[in-house]
Amino acid sequence: VQLQASGGGSVQPGGSLRLSCAASGSTIRFNSMAWYRQAPGKQREWVATITSGCSTSYEDSVKGRFTISTDNAKNTVYLQMDSLKPEDTAVYFCRTYEISTSLVFWGQGTQVTVSS
Fold first, then answer.
1. Residue 47: what pLDDT?
2. Computed from CA positions of residues 51, 48, 104, 91, in that sequence, does the dihedral angle turn out positive or negative?
3. Quick check: helix, strand or coil at residue 29?
């Protein structure tokens, strides 16, 4: 299973970015998909999850600003990030939990920088 993340970049506070994570080797509609992030000098932290049943959950600091979604036809998970804040600056990683095998796979990170 391979996960290819993209969409990171530099934006000003209040701006928006949409991250994408394209999966190959596994069908995401059967999996739980999640985004994590890791800021410099900090541990990786969970950001959002979407289950195979399309239930979503978010870390408190991103609720109301971030939206996780999937496009099953493209086998891709997205993270729409609005009203970005400097504290959202981090490397963002996508992760899948493959229910059929109980295995976890990580994508490479994509850098998000929020700065004026």
1. 98
2. positive
3. helix
Q: Is 2 exposed, middle or buried (0-12, 13-18, 19+ CB in 10 A)?
A: exposed
Mean pLDDT of successive 10-residue segments in the chain (116 residues)?
95 98 87 95 97 95 97 95 98 94 94 97
Beta strand spans in the chain (E) = 2-6, 9-11, 17-24, 32-38, 45-50, 56-58, 66-71, 76-81, 90-98, 103-106, 110-114
Burial of 114 (0-12, 13-18, 19+ CB in 10 A): buried
Cα(111)–Cα(103) distance, rounded to whole angstroms? 25
